[in-house]
Amino acid sequence: MTNRAHVDPASSLMFRTLQNSPENSLWFVDENISLPLPAAQTQIQVITNRFDLFQQLQQAGWHSRFSDFDTSHITPRSLTRILLRIPKEKPLAHYLINQAAKLLDDQGELVLIGDKSEGIRSYGKRARERLGGQLNETKINAGLWFTSITHDAQANTPELDDQQYTQLRQLSDRTGFSFISKPGLYGWQKVDQGSAFLCDELVVLLDQPLPLSGRVLDLGCGFGYLSLRSASTKTLLTCTDNNAAALRACQANIDMQGLRADVIASDAGDTLQGPFDTILCNPPFHSGFATNSDLTSRFVAAAARLLSAEGHAFFVVNKHIALEHKAASHFGKIHLQADNGHFKLIHLSQPRHYRNLS
Fold this sequence. Notes:
With 358 residues, the protein is α/β, with parallel strands linked by helices.
C-alpha cells in the first residue's frame, strides 16, 4: 500500500473535502485517486469502476459499489453533493457531470477537484452550463483547483457530449476485424498494436496452430482482443480485468463470437485460482495520469502464481519496459521471442515456486 506521503495533492484535497460532506453525498472514484484511502464516511455513497479500489473501499468500511458508474439505484434529485476528481478520459468526465445533473437536488452541489493541466477550469465551465447554477472556483496552489457548481433544477440545459458513454458499440479495424467496445476503455476505438503483434506471432511462439487448447487466461483482458483472436468454443477460457467497462465489453465480445469464458473482476489476477496452461498478457503501465512500473511487476508475479508447471506465458510490452528483469525472480526460463522496434514479446515458463514445493 502506498505511503500517505505519496498521496497526490488533488487526492489529499478530495479526502479533506469528504470529511465535511453532508448527508446524501456521492463520491465517484476512478483510477486517479491515490492510496491509501481515508476512513469511511457513513453519509457518503461511493461508486467506482476499478476493482482494486472497490476492494480497498470495502476494507476501509465505505458503502461502495463496483460498476461502470451505473447510477440506476439512486433516486433522481435525491443527492446533496457529488464529489469527483477529474478523470483522465473526457467522455467519462462528461458522463459523470451529466449524471450529477440528474441526481442532485435543487441547489445540490457538484465538487470538482483537479489540476489546471488536467482541464479542471474547462470542466468547471462545462459543468456550470450543464447544471445551470453558480460556479465558484478556488485556486489551492499553482496548479490545483477546487471547483463547486450548484444545480438549478429548473434550468433546461443540454447534456454534455459523453459519446454515449453507457452504450456498447460494434467497431472494426482497418483489417476488418470486428469487436465491441465503449468509452471508458483505454484506446477503446482501436486495436492495441502490441496485442495485435502478440496475436500475429502466436503460431510461431507456440509452434502449433491456433486456436489455443486447454486452460487459457487472458490476463488484463480489456475488451477481450487476445481471446477473440486466439480461442475457440473448445478453449477453457478465463478473462479478467480491473476495469468495469472492460469487463462489460469483454463479455459482449465473448457472447458475440459464441465463445465460452469466465469473465472475472480482479486486481492483476488476485481473485483467480490456477493453474492455466497458457497465459496471454499485454499489461497496463499507466495508472490515472501517472506511469506506474509496479503494475508490470504485479502482472508478472500473478502469471507465475497462476501458470501450470509446464505452462507458457506470453507477454507483450513496450520496448523500454524491463520485463525480463522483473520476471527473473519468478520464472526459470525467460526468452525474448521477438522485437519489432516498438514492442517486444517475452516467453515465460518454469515458474520458480514449483521448485520450492518439490
